[in-house]
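Check these lines:
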Amino acid sequence: MTPEALVDHDCLHQGPGAVWKLIGPDGRLAEIEARSRLRCNNGEVWHDWALAGSGIAMKSWIDVAEDVRAGRLIHVLPEWRSPPAPICALLPTRTLVPTRVRVFLESMADQLRKNDSLQPLQAAGATFAE
């Protein structure tokens, strides 16, 4: 299956956007105007729709890894990936970060690095910086 074949399938959209961007194994960017009969801004509802077979969803690997491993979802286009989406922590502009905040952020970065669910992302070149 190619990204272009998605136009022949029902896709699930989160929010108003209908264009999916996918990066291929050769680095090529494909922009697909995927058709959708269902649209929602709630990630849990969107996930449930995918589990119910209502269409193809583009979700983060960390959200679907368990369902893919259990056979409840199928990884469509496994050689393609979405552009990276950063995880950011916003801090006040003051120079000293409280110890508890610094420890929390270091722990989160460490957990993301160790998370087995993220192995496909790491294989695709994702990094987890501190």
